Amino acid sequence: MTTQPSLLSQVEAGVAWITLNRTAQRNALDIPTLKNLHALLDEFNADPAVRVVVLTGSGRSFCAGADLAEWAEAEARGDLETSGWTETAHALMSRLYSLEKPTIAAINGTAVGAGMDLTLCCDLRLAAQSARFKAGYTSMAYSPDAGASWHLPRLIGTEQAKRLLFLDELWGADRALATGLVGEVCADEQLLDVAGELATRLANGPTFAFAQTKKLMREGAQRDLPQQLQAELAAGLLCGRSEDGAEALRASVEKRPARFVGK
């Protein structure tokens, strides 16, 4: 009997594709999958051949969230609170959110709980028309545990975040687009092509500057404006001294498209 890998990955033309591949479990996240995805992100972040990361799911679901079967087994053993799922998930969410490379969530179906939280950690969210979003926490008499309470108010505002979390509403792709939960919706059959086109645009861009921009935006909420301006100055100096910065200046003078290398 062949064991199906829980993750599929490939790198092509600077774009790393990661596909959650537990179709029978609707791509639910068990501890081994969380750890493997974390390790894969570390690998891609360190690989200069990877300039963009795209995360999607196999089958009809993007990700059903935590693997409740694994939780039930831990509960039966009496060690649910010490099983390590939450800590492992937190480490993964932090790794994905802090990745230096641009990240795209290509949401092919239902994203529930921690599955939705995975999308929130990505820089850009592209949804198929059949995509559905559900927090899933309060219906289980549980509070958010993988970052939704931090991301959602910042992305869609406090009141819409409370609707999604308190009422545990199931939002379709159009509602998600209208509130700002995703940035684009496309036909199901076009999802991977549209995601690929977006990823290629990013991969051909100044990814060193993207990394500095991501860091500025992540850390900016902790600063006042004068502090942020100082951080922008420091980041700008790094960008100006980079190979991409020099190439952008040459290309501008020579009136040709720039060829960025991400350094």
Automatic annotation (TrEMBL):
The keyword Metal-binding does not apply. Pfam families: ECH_1. It comes from the Bacteria. The keyword Lyase applies. SUPFAM superfamilies: ClpP/crotonase (SSF52096). Keywords: Lyase. Belongs to the enoyl-CoA hydratase/isomerase family. This is Enoyl-CoA hydratase/isomerase family protein. The lineage of its organism: Bacteria, Pseudomonadati, Pseudomonadota, Gammaproteobacteria, Pseudomonadales.
